[in-house]
Write a structure and sequence with these properties.
The chain contains seven helices and no strands. The protein has about 140 residues and is mostly helical. Helix 2 packs across helix 4 (about 70-80) and helix 4 (about 70-80) packs across helix 5. The longest helix is centred in the N-terminal third of the chain and has 24 residues, at about 5-25. The radius of gyration is 22 Å and the shape is extended.
């Protein structure tokens, strides 16, 4: 599984939980008991997904397709008939996730940069930083 994709999913799960928490406290009438319980359930699922669930590449890709992957995972969790597994890809179909939840905005793929290009960019940045430090000392060259 691609590390970058899983890292992105973990970041999106964090953002989703924080967005749900912010929405709970931003209501003008204040949080409700039901809202707090819903947030608790999302927090528990978030913890499970980040610490215990062993994602496969298809599950990562499947959840990344949605604007709120935590909310989609919650629907899958609630409909999961399996006692000892959480087959997210199977459950995405069961809960009709594509029909019920908004999809994520497409993001352009990251630009592929060769290792040599990254090395050259890092060297150039180091030179820029080094020349900036010498200016900070009054422009003295050493």
């Amino acid at each position: 599984m691609e590390f970058a994709a899983k890292k992105l999913l973990m970041e999106r799960l964090d953002k989703s939980l924080l967005d749900h928490a912010a929405a709970l406290s931003s209501d003008s009438s204040g949080p409700t008991i039901l809202g707090v319980y819903k947030l608790q359930g999302l927090a528990e699922l978030h913890c499970y997904l980040k610490t215990a669930h062993e994602f496969n590449a298809a599950e990562v890709d499947g959840l990344l397709r949605f604007a709120d992957p935590l909310e989609v995972a919650k629907a899958c969790w609630e409909d999961n008939p399996h006692e000892y597994s959480f087959p997210i890809c199977e459950l995405l179909g069961t809960v009709r996730a594509r029909e019920r939840f908004p999809l994520a905005e497409p993001t352009p793929p990251p630009e592929k940069v060769s290792v040599r290009e990254r090395l050259n960019a890092a060297i150039q940045e180091a030179h820029r930083q080094a020349s900036g430090h010498s200016r900070d000392r009054g422009g003295e060259g050493r």
